[in-house]
Design brief:
Number of strands: 11
Structural class: alpha/beta
Oligomer: single chain
CATH architecture of one domain: 3-Layer(aba) Sandwich
Strand order of the largest sheet: 6-5-4-7-8-11-10
Number of helices: 8
Helix content: 25-40%
Shape: globular
Strand content: 15-25%
Length: about 280
């Protein structure tokens, strides 16, 4: 399927099956040194510190609510230790953790955000291989995994630097969701070429299993269906907000029964003994 970069360059890319079952890939994949130009926009929302439009204000409100919810999920597993957020943006997520309980680290490619992260007391590295083995109690990737070029190497590194009792949180869009099927080439969560990979539930759980992770929990992210549908309507027909709300609502209602939410948060832990494959849905 040919997909347009509606957000920035208006270039066309292809999304087609990758070598991994249940995972699609963007073709051609931009060279790593060229990727930064596809993020070079003041409208790129994960890098914004101020909300300008109504859409941005809604996004920031929901993001703040979800940040506190994510914090509570982390604290159910670990109350203190070292935490790494990959693709930290402005550092909003790590900021909610008390510095006396947590040593906070991040990887964030955007150079212009580095001073802000430093001011918030967040230590930064450029690459996963800069961390020692078994460094972290918690590692998080909130809509970041789909941006990483070398998927296998990244997962292998995550397994290496996570402690044996550590927890990995990953949120990614789901290309099997109702809103993805409805909007097709206009689905905003394709977000080519910034999104290099496109996951189904089966695809994500299978590839992480192959690298020593069990998925212990998965949770739908219902707000994403509405936000993605609003953007998709804009790309498709210049913004039918009523239709966007209807599609988002229907997507969430269907997902109550089939678990195919627009975005899904996966909680994964390393397994120690050899396991038999669990049933993994599509």
């Amino acid at each position: 399927m040919k997909i347009k970069d509606h957000f920035l360059t208006q270039e066309y890319f292809e999304v087609k099956p990758s070598q991994y079952k249940g995972i699609l890939q963007t073709f051609p994949q931009p060279k790593e040194e060229d990727l930064s130009k596809y993020y070079d926009s003041p409208a790129y929302i994960s890098h914004q510190t101020q909300a300008k439009s109504l859409k941005d204000k809604i996004y920031q409100r929901v993001k703040s609510f979800m940040t506190n919810k994510k914090r509570q999920m982390v604290l159910k597993h670990h109350q203190q230790g070292k935490i790494l957020d990959i693709g930290a943006g402005t550092g909003q997520f790590l900021e909610v953790f008390k510095k006396e309980d947590w040593s906070k680290f991040c990887i964030e490619p955007s150079i212009k955000l580095h001073p802000e992260l430093s001011e918030k007391g967040i230590k930064r590295k450029d690459y996963l291989n800069e961390f020692e083995d078994h460094s972290f109690e918690v590692i998080t990737l909130w809509h970041s995994l789909e941006h990483i070029p070398d998927l296998e190497n990244a997962i292998n590194q995550l397994r290496r630097i996570l402690k044996p009792d550590g927890v990995l949180f990953i949120a990614v869009p789901n290309h099997k969701s109702h809103d993805a099927q409805y909007y097709k080439k206009y689905w905003a969560a394709w977000d080519v070429p910034r999104h290099l990979w496109h996951f189904s539930r089966r695809g994500l759980k299978s590839i992480f299993y192959d690298y020593g992770f069990n998925c212990i929990k998965e949770t739908g992210m219902p707000f994403d269906a509405f936000y993605v549908s609003i953007l998709s309507e804009h790309y498709k027909s210049k913004g039918n907000i009523v239709m966007a709300i209807f599609v988002g609502l229907l997507s969430n209602l269907k997902a109550v029964f089939n678990n195919k939410y627009s975005s899904i948060l996966y909680v994964l832990k390393p397994f120690k003994e050899q396991n038999t494959h669990e049933d993994i849905d599509s």
